[in-house]
Amino acid sequence: MLSFVAFVVGVLVVGALLFLGASLLLGRGETQPPADTDRSPVALPGDRPVTADDVRALQLSVVARGYRMAEVDWLLDQFALALEERDAEIAALRARVHPAPVTAPKQQQGTAPDDAGTADDEEDPRA
């Protein structure tokens, strides 16, 4: 009988420890406060283009369940803006180096080119 009571107490203690551990690791159901969208401790240079070394030097704040969503969203927006600026600059430079060819307007069907009509207008010298 004493061994049965010890077994039940042991199972209850182990169950309580597992429940306590799971509660601490997985949280207690509370929600996180909303992230501040107007500020971010992540800094990118504003006076020059972003370089690969700037990206490698970034460190996002680690929170209990990953990274701060506001920081990641802000960083992705900054990268998108940098890519758009570079794409626009590349397109402008390519347009300067290789300007678009000017094409002559297409002739309508049934009309002869201007040069072909001059040969018919000349008189035949053998006539």
Fold and architecture overview:
The chain is mainly α and 127 residues long. It has a domain of 57 residues. Helix content is 52%, strand content 3%. It is built from 4 helices and 2 strands; from the N terminus they run H-H-E-E-H-H. The chain has a two-stranded antiparallel sheet. A hairpin with a 2-residue loop joins strand 1 and strand 2. The longest helix has 29 residues. The protein starts with a helix and ends in a 6-residue tail after the last helix. This is DivIVA domain-containing protein. InterPro entries: DivIVA_domain (IPR019933).
Task: Compile the SSE list and pairings.
Elements: H1 2-26, H2 52-57, E1 62-63, E2 66-67, H3 69-97, H4 116-121
Antiparallel strand pairs: 1-2
Radius of gyration: 38 Å
Order of helices and strands: HHEEHH
- The parts where pLDDT drops under 50 for at least 5 residues are none
Form type: elongated
Overall pLDDT level:
75
Give the strand content. under 5%
Discrete helix count: 4
Structural class by sheet pairing and helices? mainly alpha
